[in-house]
Amino acid sequence: MGSRNGVFSARSAYHLLSNKESSHRLSTASDSRIHDWSMVPADVWKIIWICSTLPKIQRFLWRACVCGLATGDALTRRNVAADPLCGRCGECETISHLLLGCSYARVGEWEEGIPIIDSLVKLCLFFLWLSRTDLVFGHKIWQPNEVICAAVKAFQEFVDIQTTVDTTPSTVSLPQQWIVPPAGYVKCNCDSSLSMDSCKSGIGFICRDHSGAPMVAISDPVSFSDVLVGEATVIRLALLEIISTRYARVMVESDNINLVTYIRDGGGTSPLLI
Ligand SMILES: [Zn+2]
Predict the structure, then answer these.
(1) Distances (CA, A) of 200 to 70, 129, 141, 190
(2) How far is the CA of 126 from the centre of ligand 1 (A)?
(3) Average pLDDT across the chain, whole number
(4) Which of 81, 187, 201, 224 is the most exposed place for a label (fewest CB within 10 A)?
(5) 22 band by pLDDT with thresholds 50, 70 and 90
(6) Residue 104 Cα, ligand 1 centroid: separation in angstroms?
(7) How far is the CA of 87 from the centre of ligand 1 (A)?
(8) CATH number corresponding to 186-264
(9) Where in the chain is the domain with CATH 3.30.420.10?
């Protein structure tokens, strides 16, 4: 990713997320369950999953690339009552518009230059999305410079944490880098999100082969009342999905230590709810 003048711009972010092929996909696809992965170059996935940033930023970028974010356009295509237009400029609210095409997103080109650092650009995209969500739900109206300031602040915190961990490795947990599975294995990364508003809860998983190439990925809104249930549900769905493709060597990664403990224990001490 690069820019001749060395400043953050929508164009540099564009190169991070995509290229010509996938940009078409970003602007047209809408179904998060059915993905034509061949449309997304492998380099894009590598940039997302093998990068130094927070896991939630990686998940956000992945969802952006598979059109798995609840934009007005995506919701309307799924027959959900929502405003399909951008709340800032009135154009069709696709993810490519929100992050790249909207005049609000392009303000970054005219702000004081900030260094192009992969992690920082990714955070800018994340906070662009966050500012849109706050706008839609009436929480806050972000000024463009606030988006950049929030990204810079989060980036600095991320750098500080890494520095701290480097000096005290036994006391602080690092954001983990994704590691490819051994040859012949498939690795499923699963996660769930529980919201007090059950309508906003959901699950998602991605299965990748030993080269890191995605084989299948699904994100779905699912109602559940306990995060443990959500985490268990997504692992079950991921296993069913990958088993249906006749892969027998499967590795599962989850960030819920309680569930991992229960599974390793063979269910002997699992709470009744799972
Ligand atoms: Zn707009």
Answers:
(1) 10, 16, 22, 17
(2) 16
(3) 74
(4) 81
(5) very low
(6) 6
(7) 7
(8) 3.30.420.10
(9) 186-264
